[in-house]
Write a structure and sequence with these properties.
This protein is of the alpha+beta class. Helix content is about 20%, strand content about 25%. The longest helix is centred in the middle third of the chain and has 16 residues, at about 150-165.
Length: about 280
Amino acid sequence: MLRWEGGRRSALAYGTDIGFRAVGERRCVGARGNPCPLRAVVPGRATQARCAECARLDRAFSVAADGVPDDPRTYRVYLAWFGAGLVKVGITAEERGSRRLLEQGAVAFCWLGRGPLMAARRTEELLRAALGVPDRVAYARKRGVRAELPARPERARELDELYRRAVALDGWAEALERVAFEAVDHAEEFGLGARGGPAPGGGVVRELVDGGAVAGRLVAAAGPDLHLEIAGGGALVVDTRVLVGWELVAAGAGAGVTVPVQAVEVAGGGGGGVEQDGLF
């Protein structure tokens, strides 16, 4: 779904026609629920719609930046799988369940352990160094492998092998409890076929411009990426992170795609706007 300024939400159902047009300039959305006092203009290609000061304030209270080391919640360590050989390690609050993995576009994942925040963080760093897996994967790499995936059993096997190596390591934080292996697959939730797809041959939208439109039929969605079938054939990916901060108005199916489109990088082994009528 897309969540709009003011709290309204728009459901995104596969097979639905989507059309919108950007209006005006992209503005900073502020930090920690507070509006930007300057309503600063932010670059169209930025993945976060925040000016430098609001970004600093937002990150100061971020778990990812260790801004809240005394967070009392239980955290989980996970392995997220995006494609053959493309895996990362990370942590998320246990109360969020698998939402963090869905947000990241993880095609499959498994839990490794659970415990206090700093124990989870120390174990994450151990696994990153010992297994040679990163704690970040660029979205460009994720979408570059999404069109062609190994079959589901192979995805689970690759996770299982890495899980076994992870739990066998010495040096885990004592306060972190190991979690039994279970591979969770998100291909169905994302609208992907058994072997991935659709291939985004039409490129990726990584920037909006004033008056620019995007229209197509939603066929899949993984993390922030919407996969659209566009008029005349072909598929296009819209990175919804670049929608945030724009005022968006509805556009008909015939509006086409009149914003900059980039080629999808081939990698190896909530939108936002003002309160308005629906776009779809």
